[in-house]
Design goal:
The protein is mainly alpha-helical. The chain has a domain of 99 residues. Helix content is 72%, strand content 0%. The protein has six helices and no strands. Helix 3 packs antiparallel against helix 4, helix 4 packs antiparallel against helix 5 and helix 5 runs antiparallel to helix 6. It is globular, with a radius of gyration of 16 Å. The relative contact order is 0.19.
């Protein structure tokens, strides 16, 4: 049953992420794509989670994305997860998933910064879904890892 929740959550998130990309593809022309920054990102050393810096700098996120991640980090990183039982950890996952849904629905980013956000989300979303489904401490540690590295690559 837990596996079904994870699979369904992954599928829903993938569809939402693809719709974000599809909407951008409809409004952005091929000429609008910043090939130079994409090529520069490919030449850089890839971090442990597949992320790269923007020529040594963090990728700038839009205000909507910064606000969403600020809310997620504040609510999750400030909590004492060791004191929570499985249901409490699952509820933390549900709250993160709700904010992720808001983030994805309001996505307006384009270009390589948007691409790097998607790289980040390919690890973060499954971590949140696992926490929501399992409510275990290992899943909480994965979510914590992603929230902690957000500021290393994205701002």
């Amino acid at each position: 049953m837990k596996l079904n929740h994870i699979v369904m959550g992954t599928l829903v998130s993938a569809v939402l992420l693809m719709s974000c990309s599809d909407d951008k593809a409809k409004t952005d022309s091929h000429a609008g794509h910043d090939h130079d920054s994409h090529q520069a990102a490919e030449k850089q050393e890839t971090g442990p989670d597949g992320l790269v810096l923007n020529n040594g700098e963090k990728w700038e996120m839009d205000e909507h994305t910064r606000n969403s991640f600020s809310k997620m980090a504040e609510s999750f990183l400030d909590a004492d997860h060791a004191s929570l039982d499985g249901q409490g950890l699952k509820q933390s996952g549900v709250e993160l998933q709700n904010e992720l849904d808001v983030l994805i629905k309001g996505c307006t980013m384009t270009g390589e910064a948007h691409n790097q956000l998607h790289v980040y989300l390919t690890g973060y979303i499954p971590a949140v879904q696992e926490l929501t489904a399992s409510g275990d401490m290992e899943a909480a540690k994965k979510v914590k890892h992603y929230l902690e590295i957000y500021d290393d690559y994205l701002e």
